[in-house]
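Feature request disguised as a bug: please show the residue count (615) next to Iron-sulfur cluster assembly protein in the output. Example input:
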Amino acid sequence: MSDAEKKPEATEEEEVVGGELLQCGATDWYSIGRTKEVRPEYPNLSVPHRLKALEGIKVAFVAAGPSACHTIIGDVNGVCYTWGRNEKGQLGVGDTINRNVPTIVAGLANKKVIAGSAGRAHSAVVTAAGDSYSFGLNNYGQLGTGSVKKAKGVEDMSLTPQLSLVSKCNKVACGADFTMWLCDGKLWSAGCPQYGQLGHGTDNSYNAADSSVKMVFEPQANPRIIAALAEKKVTQVAAGYNHTIAVCSDGGVWTWGFGGYGRLGHKVQQDEMRPRLVETLTGRIAVPADAVVAAGQTASFCTIVGGQIFAWGKLKPSGDNFMYPTPYHELSGWNIHSLCCGSSTFACAATYGNERSTITWGHTNGYAELGYGPAGKKSSANPDKCMALEGAHTLQVAMGFGHSLFLVKAGDPKAEKAPVWEPPCVKDESAPNAGAGSKRKAPASGAASGKGKVKKNLAQAPRGASLDVGAAFVLARAYHKNVVDHYENPRNVGSFDKKDPSVGTGLVGAPACGDVMKLQIKVDENGNIVDSCFKTFGCGSAIASSSVATEWIKGKPVDDVMTIKNSDIAKHLSLPPVKLHCSMLAEDAIKAAVKDWKSKQEAGKQGGAQQAAAA
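Example output, currently without the count:
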């Protein structure tokens, strides 16, 4: 959650004025992230549009999220509306049918909703009474209700709001599959612990198989206070896909979770299991307690005293990452009031002197979500003004996976002149059945623990748990038969004694997506690889690549296998471009295994020479 996902704090006597909501980007909620082919009746909106269904309704807050294909709003009376993708019940309206227009969440009637946040397939809101309600997918306990549902069918989804086990709550932030609650200055978390994003010092992982690597991450269904910050007063929180940012009243900025691309700001690509102070934002760089913070798929932002914005992580598809907080010079001089992150896009409402602007930028998913107009840029590496809203008093901004939202002050001329979007129907019952929705990364090793389920997963192209590579698209077409073959029938799964001098071991990982591979070779006295085996935790493509690698290297001299390239394996498996990174582990693992074996041989020779000299 960013500043865009909470309404400005107000006393009970203070009237919330609210504003008019505008939306641009995708409207075909089923197709987002699956295909760029959109149905003609659900066009991409290239400029911000008013929503016909919200005519006469003053909106107090708007919330989405970098992994969300849905939106949450609350009006000035505390009535909660949701719309967008609903295959996991994340709209809380009692079914799994997508909604094209803002729909009142009946289960929150009379609750006076004041804030909210949206995850990949779940939602959470906060009421004026300090309670939090959540709905949607609960396979990791991300709803914070104390239970986990495996989502094997509609009966396993929370289709209506459920009371989360927290109290005195005033803010909430949803990551892809986890939730953070800010309650009376203390931070609580629940959900997926895989990268340490819950902040409790562990990823709750264990190997669930005896003869293979089958890593399982134990869900956390009961919200727990984050002990590392228990003595602090937390004032702001933001959640990215798999990482979290918190600001404390003393100005300390803390980050934890997935560390790829430097998004945690600690100068290393390393996961953090518990909150770690961002050293760069200390000393002469003062961060206010009410700093504007935002977390996206691979990037993080925070404002300092005076309004200057600092950024870190991966902000562009190409170029260097910011490994620690760096002044974002592209917005130098601007005073940032609201800031948000989409999957790889960004937006802010800012002022420069007396000038008001709504600024967007980033690498889009092809849905015109930057609002530059039909003849405008599709993507923008640098911040640029959304001219349709130039001069408008934008109160809040929010972004989802393929859409953007702008809350403009009521009565603003720019809002009144904006075109109006009215979809053909309220419920999108004509959308293809998406079944269980997007698939999780295969939790298995090369061992066939997923037999019987593999084809279904591969045919629907499982997206990685971290969604950090390949623009997070779920592939629209099935995998090649070679991938399916090696996934269903992995070759050479197993392990050798790594202390054996004839064995070389290569253990490599891909920080961007969490794939891990261990490849071992057994070499005879002539330098020929007589056997090989592997264990892999990762997606279907990574497992298939590992299986192929072990087949190709058997029977070859160790020096010959050094010529095997990732591109060869990818070509053999016919991997689509979005999954090419999954073949990268094999080449590195082969080289590491050969290097390990050679180092053992060299050590053996030196040991023999020393023994001979001693004799």
